[in-house]
Write a structure and sequence with these properties.
10 helices, 9 strands, alpha/beta, Alkaline Phosphatase, subunit A
Length: about 425
Amino acid sequence: MDRRTFLKGTGVAMALPFFENMGPLSAKAVGPTAKNSSTGSPIRMVCIGNPLGLMPDSFFPKGEGANYELSDLLRPIGRHRKDFTIFSNLDHDISGGHSAVHAFLSGIKDQDASDWPEGNISLDQRAAEFVGTSTRYSSLVMSTGEGDGDLKCKLSWTRNGVNVPPVTSARDLFKALFVQDDPRLLAKRKSAYDVNESILDAVNSQAKILSRQLGKADQEKLDEYLNSVRELERKLGMSREWMHKPKPKVDIGEPGEGDLTYTVPAFYDLLALALETDSTRVATLGVPGNVNTADLGLVGSYHGFSHHGKAEKLRQGLFVIEKFQVEQMGRFLDKLKTIKEPDGQSLLDRTMVLMGSGMGNGSSHSNKNLPLLLAGGGFKHGEHKVYPTQNHKRIPLCNLYGSMLQRFGLEIDQFNKGTGTLTGLETA
């Protein structure tokens, strides 16, 4: 059989995967998207990051277990002490400084994606696949600014090695979540759905003829492939349903544009509303490394402060920037605590909030011992968990991600470079 084989129908052609009788090459068919079958209030996941890390001596506490001493960066959120966990000595065992930061939520550099069964899919996008079309947006990918080069927040990656571009305007995010679309735009989307949904029907007769010509293994592969296409079409149908469902009404006005001290709170407020209205259950929020720091009373760039070389004046400036980020995350936790679910739990009880970075130390460009804080989500919190540092015992950060995905509802044994789930992290 020719490698360039298509199923053809009225005006459409659908490329087929490689079969055994096409030769040694093969392609993996992606199965249907898993669905969240949990009952009651769903679990959510929020991942927050920046490309420059957090100063280790300001972030990591002294001592371990429940009686650790709050560090300077954690003191502003001390009121949430029993609602979060700090982890020491977890990372992805990779190096590269700025060029490795984008692996924060995947553990895998984009250039190495082809070596792994699921590519370099990130934690949030794996969860988003599980959610599917249960919500209007399977995930929200956001950044409080555009970023530049390695200072962009490349947090989210698909299994095909594609970086998911973030929404960088709070105003655009507000419109996507809460403003009804223009009827002309809806009509264009409907037309696109009509074309896409006709593909499988158009090639159905050819698919049946082809199936009779294949061996058993290839028949199974074709069936898997067509099931994937059917799943895509089902998702298109669900998208059509969301297209006609009114967006939720909220009691806030459309945000404007501003500097860091305006933009970051605006994004957090919109994110809390997106979770509360079940517009999404998965989100990432990044703070790029080239943000303007003038409204924090500083003269200099975020990136410049991060390369302090132990100069005290630069360290003090960097602490101001990092403290602001931690304070705003704490304000977000405040908000989630006040929102009650139908079962009486708070939204924080049902939302895992991960804050960290793929950079362990911006000044030395180290990707080791990443700064990590996990709050909420129904886990037992209140500790500083310190894991072994010896190479032969070192625990992959992806083990934490495996635990988070299991908590989210996925039936998996490990995630990407992980060896299992994280020992010592238990549900409440």
